[in-house]
Amino acid sequence: MAIDRMKDISVFVHVAEAKSFTAASERIGLSRSAVGKSIVRLEDRLGVRLLQRTTRSVSLTGEGAAFHERCVRLLADLDEAEMAMLSHSQAPRGRLRIDLPVSFGRLYVLPVLNRFMHKWPEISVSTSFNDRYVDLIDEGVDLAIRIGGSEDGRLMSRLLAPHRLVTCAAPSYFENRAMPQTIDELAEHSCLAFVHGGRPVDWRFTENGRPRSVTIGGRFAATNAEALRDATLAGYGIARLATFLISDDLRAGRLVPVLKHVDTDGPPIRAAYPSSRHLSPKVRVLIDELLEAWRPEPPWDRPA
Questions:
Q1: What are the CA-CA distances from residue 126 to residues 47, 143, 283 (Å)?
Q2: Are 104 and 161 in contact (CB under 8 A)?
Q3: Over the stretch 239-287, which tens digit does the pLDDT of each residue have?
């Protein structure tokens, strides 16, 4: 593929994710005019409109959303190929500062990190665990594993794994009440909330092909996902929990899924790191280790 085509694709992905020509131009160091010409050139070549422009916003068309998904995978594959070649010529060493989500980091990142440290003895690791947003640049963090994306234009990110959510409850909760069959019936139940940023996180579903957000409330709320899982197992109510946390409980029947026909995935699990011209070997090789451990399907979603 011609180099100029790859540049146009990269520009398109930045515009789609920034939802702004101006923000994208600042991120990639091109003028707004050059970004606009790149998008027009790409649309002319494909013969479709990829972006819907208004005076206030930029959004993907249906064709643009499908093309964006494929472009992200293409650019990720190119990044992986480049990282693989660079890793042969530069040995990772030094201190690596990592920030991890509390539950997911303990359950699934630390085992990979243990193997990584045995493999690269010249690297030392400093790890923090947070479910809050950490400013990587201000706090001197090399790499963060995050559930969801970031609007911080100073950061780059790599998709690592999907984040699948299941609406579920303990069998004991349904001993004296019927399982909900529709989203609206959740209002009749105790729905357990994960609290983030000081407020309960809404539940998001897909109904008749359209996203739907629901504000919930119940007997228990927590800022820690493992505490929420324990409350669900105790029969306090219905919760939406990540499969990385409850896959064993689902297999064993300790939790039962409900509303499977409208469940939708959460924002994916990503690696985030400060933007730079060359990614440091120590960050690059850890991302490679995570990708190797979690692809093509992450261990928490594999059949027993």
A1: 50, 11, 13
A2: no
A3: 999 999 999 999 999 999 999 999 999 889 999 988 754 578 889 899 9
pTM, 2 dp: 0.66
Q: How far is C-alpha 2 from the chain's CA centre? A: 30
The CATH superfamily label for domain 90-159+269-301 reads Periplasmic binding protein-like II (3.40.190.10)
> What percentage of residues in the chain have a pLDDT greater than 90?
51
Q: Decide: 255 and 169 in contact? Cβ < 8 Å.
A: yes
Is the separation of the CB atoms in 266 and 101 below 8 Å? no
How many residues make up the chain in this entry? 304
90-159+269-301 shares its CATH topology with 165-264: yes
Residue 87 neighbours by CB under 8 Å, 6+ apart: 281, 284, 285, 288
